[in-house]
Amino acid sequence: MENTNDVASPLGGTRKTIEDLFAQRDKLKDDLKLRDKIFSLALHDIRSAMNGIFGFLDILAHDFSSLSDEEKGEYFSKMLVSSERVIGVMNEFSEWGELLSSSGTKKEQILTDDFIRDVIVSVNQYAQEKDISLVPKTERDLFLFADKFMLTAIVRNILMNAVKFTSRNGIIEVVSIRDKDSLLIQVADSGIGISEENLETIFSLRSGKSTEGTAGEKGTGLGLVLVKELVERMRGRISIQSAVGKGTTFTLSLPRLE
């Protein structure tokens, strides 16, 4: 029987080749759209922070002698916060840019129990500021063959997101379990949850802007979009279950042995 996938097209080449070219074209368009969004958000955040700094400097330059020491200290503190925001945005987008520009993955054997505990340690300082408990619940002697740099960025971002939307004294559990030929990593929080409307666009560029955290934390609104991109590059899947007031669970499914 003739293989219809290899039927020649009037444009030249086989049908499958042309379909692959169209798929590559669409993927390139999506990548360019994502990168444009990244640069746009980075510039917006940096511009907003710098405008604040310049505003405070203008006040200090023109009214320094008439300001009280308390007022001067307040302006300097606000400039420090804005400066830290600029550095944070630059570091965040530098990391994402490095990950997204990578031409491939560098896989290695990862012991998930140690890996999850290391990621928790890297986030624990932020959790402690809100008295949030980070609880690992990992299956022993469970290995994964994956790009550790990418996986760290994925899980850390999800965990930071959970801290952001969990109220003081909350609990976040990080679970790893075996599921046939896949590894499941779940981040389950006791936070404020997500509405059905926002769930529909949470992994999409259409989500628009970031939502403030329970302690007023800011963000770019792009983290989960990039997380999904990295998960797909690792041939995995990511899903989310949530309800307003009942917390959120992110589930990451990755092939264990590919």
Helix content: 40-55%
Q: Provide the low-confidence segments as ranges.
A: 1-5
Number of helices: 6
CATH superfamily of the largest domain: Histidine kinase-like ATPase, C-terminal domain
Number of strands: 7
Output the CATH topology of the largest domain: Heat Shock Protein 90
CATH architecture of the largest domain: 2-Layer Sandwich
The side-by-side strand order for the widest beta sheet comes to 2-4-5-7-6
* Name of the level-1 CATH class of the largest domain: Alpha Beta
Whole-number radius of gyration?
A: 23 Å
Strand content: 15-25%
Domain count: the total is 2
Described by strand count, sense and barrel closure, the largest sheet is: 5 strands, mixed
**N→C terminal distance:** 33 Å
Please tell me what the overall shape is.
globular
Query: Structural class from helices and strands?
Result: alpha+beta
Taken in chain order, the helices and strands follow as: HHEHEEHEEHHEE
Instruction: Estimate the mean pLDDT confidence.
Output: 81
